[in-house]
Design a protein that fits this description.
By secondary structure, this protein is an alpha+beta fold. Helices cover about 20% and strands about 20% of the residues. A hairpin with a 3-residue loop joins strand 3 and strand 4. The longest helix is centred in the first third of the chain and has 27 residues.
C-alpha cells in the first residue's frame, strides 16, 4: 500500500466563490461548508495549463446538502436519501444543458443565470424543503432557514476548475491525507455534452480531463512521509483477501450506500469484487445470500470503486446509457491488472472486529464542489509509490511502469453505528502522527486497497488537450478530476471471519 501518511501541496492562490452555510440539525451541532476555487497548482508547466477563455462557464457548483445532514432520524433516512439523489440528478441535467447551449451562452451573457442556474435553484429549493419535511415529520429538528441557503448554485469558469486549496471543514470521516496519500467521447457519447462542449474543458465528452490534470511523475518532488512509530500495543499483522479484478465485468451505476433504492444513484460505473449481487436495491439479507468472487467464501463483503477509462474513442457497452456516455463517462473501461485487498492493524493499539454490515466510503466524488477536506485519492506509478503520491493530478508514468491507485480506509469506529446520516461520522481516521483513534472511537482493522493498471502514457498537446487521456468515472459536473477518486465498502462475513481478521492482525501474523 505504500506509506500511511502523506502531505498535500499548498496552492498559491485561493478565491472564495460561495459563502459558508451554517446548518444546525438534530442534536444542535453547528456544521458548515465552504466552497472555494483557485488557480492551477504551482507545479503546472505552461504545457499543462488549460487553454480556455476566462469568461467561459465550465461547470456548475452546488452545495453538497448530504454532507451537512449529520443527524437525520433513522425513520427519515430513506426518504432523505431519495431526495438527495434527486438533487444529484438535477445537477446532472443542468450540466448537460450547460454543455449543449454554448451558442446561446455566447449570444446572451445572462443565459446561464436565467436559463440554467436560476431554474436549478428553484428545483433544489423544492427538493430541500421536502428533506426538511421528511426530517420534521418523524420528530427530527432542522434549521430550515440555513437549509434553504443551500439551494443556490454558482458557476465556475474554465480557468479556475482546479480543486487546489478548496476549503471545507474537518470531518471525522474525511479523507485527510494522513491515511494514505497525496493529492485532479466517442462522438455518440453524451449527445448533449459532446456535440457542442468546448475543447478547453478537455476530454472526449467535453468534461475533462485536461492537460493540467496530468503530471510527469518523474518531475514531482518526493512527498511521502514516514508512518507513525509502532507502540507497545501495536497490532502489526495483516489479512489478505483475494477477490479478483472484476474480470467478469460486474458493473452498475448504483450506489446502495448513499442512494438506496435509486437506480443510477452514482451517475458513473463501478467495478465490483467480493459480493456479486450489489445494486441499489440490495438489503442486508440479500447481501448475506449472495455469491462472492473472493477465494475465501466466508468473505462476501462488497468492495466497489469507480472504473478507470481510457478516452481512446472506444464505444463501451454504456456509450448511450445513464452513468456512461450520456453523462460524460466515455472510452474504454480498463480492468485492473491487479486488485490487492488487505486489512492491516494500528500502530497504537489492538483492534476490535468490524461489525457486520459496516459501511465505509473513503474519498469524495465531489471535490470540485466540496474542496479537498474529504479527498483521499492516491495516484502513483509502480516504482514510485513510496516516494510520490498524487491527489490532484493523474500521473504520467515512465516506460515499464504501471499506474497505481491506492486507498486506505478510515480505521476508527464509534463502536455503535454501522452507518451515519452523511455516511462519514460513524468512522474516522486515526491521528496521523501517533495512529491513535480519537475519544470514543475504537481501532478496527484498516481496509487498504491497491489497484494497478496497464495504461499507455497519454500525450499532452500544445493546445492544452490530451491524446488518449485516462480518467476515473465521476459525476459529469466534476470534470473527471483526479481528486474525485473514492472507494466504497460494506463488511459482510460468515463463519466468524471478522473476528478471525481481527485476531490475525492483533497477533502479528500474515494471514489470508
Amino acid at each position: 500500500m505504500g506509506r500511511n501518511d502523506r502531505k498535500r501541496r499548498t496552492p498559491l492562490a485561493t478565491k472564495a466563490i460561495a459563502a459558508s452555510a451554517a446548518l444546525a440539525l438534530g442534536g444542535g451541532g453547528l456544521l458548515w461548508a465552504q466552497m472555494n476555487a483557485s488557480a492551477h497548482e504551482s507545479n503546472s508547466s505552461g504545457q499543462n495549463q488549460t487553454k480556455a477563455a476566462a469568461a467561459q462557464v465550465a461547470t456548475i457548483a452546488c452545495p453538497d446538502v448530504g454532507q451537512q445532514l449529520t443527524n437525520v432520524p433513522q425513520k427519515a433516512r430513506q426518504g432523505v436519501a431519495t431526495e438527495l439523489a434527486n438533487l444529484d440528478k438535477q445537477i446532472t441535467e443542468a450540466y448537460a444543458r450547460l454543455a449543449s447551449t454554448r451558442q446561446a451562452q455566447a449570444n446572451d451573457a445572462s443565459f446561464v443565470q436565467n436559463a440554467i442556474v436560476g431554474p436549478l435553484k428553484e428545483k433544489r429549493a423544492a427538493t430541500i424543503d421536502r428533506i426538511r419535511i421528511d426530517i420534521q415529520r418523524v420528530g427530527g429538528s432542522v434549521n430550515a432557514a440555513a437549509l434553504k441557503q443551500l439551494a443556490a448554485c454558482t458557476t465556475q469558469n474554465a480557468t479556475n476548475t482546479t480543486t487546489a486549496g478548496r476549503g471545507g471543514g474537518k470531518n471525522n470521516g474525511g479523507g485527510k491525507n494522513n491515511n494514505g496519500g497525496q493529492n485532479t467521447a466517442a462522438p455518440s457519447a453524451s449527445a448533449s455534452a459532446s456535440a457542442s462542449a468546448p475543447a478547453n474543458n478537455g476530454g472526449q465528452a467535453g468534461n475533462g480531463p485536461t492537460a493540467a490534470d496530468f503530471v510527469d511523475i518523474t518531475k514531482v518532488a518526493n512527498n511521502v512521509l514516514a508512518k507513525p512509530q509502532n507502540q507497545a500495543q501495536a497490532s502489526t499483522g495483516s489479512f489478505t483477501t483475494k477477490c479478483g479484478v472484476n474480470a467478469n465485468k460486474n458493473h452498475n451505476t448504483d450506489n446502495v450506500i448513499v442512494a438506496p433504492g435509486v437506480t443510477n444513484g452514482a451517475h458513473h460505473e463501478h467495478d465490483y469484487v467480493g459480493n456479486q449481487k450489489v445494486n441499489a436495491f440490495s438489503t442486508n439479507d440479500s447481501l448475506l445470500a449472495a455469491p462472492s468472487s473472493c477465494q475465501n467464501q466466508s468473505d462476501i463483503s462488497a468492495y466497489y470503486w469507480p472504473v478507470v477509462r481510457v478516452q481512446d474513442g472506444s464505444q463501451e457497452f454504456d456509450a448511450n446509457a445513464d452513468g456512461g456516455g450520456k453523462e460524460g463517462n466515455v472510452g474504454k473501461i480498463l480492468t485492473p491488472a491487479q486488485a490487492q485487498i488487505k486489512y492491516v492493524g494500528s500502530p497504537a493499539s489492538k483492534v476490535v472486529a468490524m461489525p457486520q454490515f459496516l459501511r465505509i466510503i473513503t474519498g469524495d466524488a465531489k471535490t470540485l464542489t466540496n474542496g479537498l477536506a474529504n479527498a483521499n485519492a492516491h495516484w502513483s506509478c509502480t516504482g514510485f509509490e513510496d516516494k510520490v503520491q498524487l491527489t490532484e493530478q493523474y500521473p504520467i508514468c515512465p516506460q515499464g511502469s504501471q499506474v497505481v491507485r491506492t486507498f486506505a480506509f478510515q480505521s476508527c469506529w464509534d463502536g455503535v453505528n454501522v452507518d451515519s446520516a452523511n455516511h462519514r461520522t460513524h468512522v474516522a481516521f486515526a491521528d496521523p502522527a501517533s495512529g491513535v483513534c480519537g475519544n470514543g472511537f475504537k481501532a478496527i482493522p484498516q481496509l487498504t486497497m491497491r489497484l494497478v493498471y496497464n495504461i499507455a502514457p497519454p500525450t499532452l498537446q500544445a493546445d492544452g488537450t490530451v491524446k488518449n487521456a485516462y480518467a476515473v468515472d465521476g459525476f459529469p459536473e466534476q470534470l473527471h478530476k483526479a481528486s474525485t477518486d473514492h472507494d466504497d465498502f460494506i463488511s459482510v462475513t460468515k463463519n466468524n471471519l471478522a473476528a478471525k481478521i481481527a485476531n490475525c492482525v492483533n497477533s502479528g501474523k500474515k494471514c489470508q
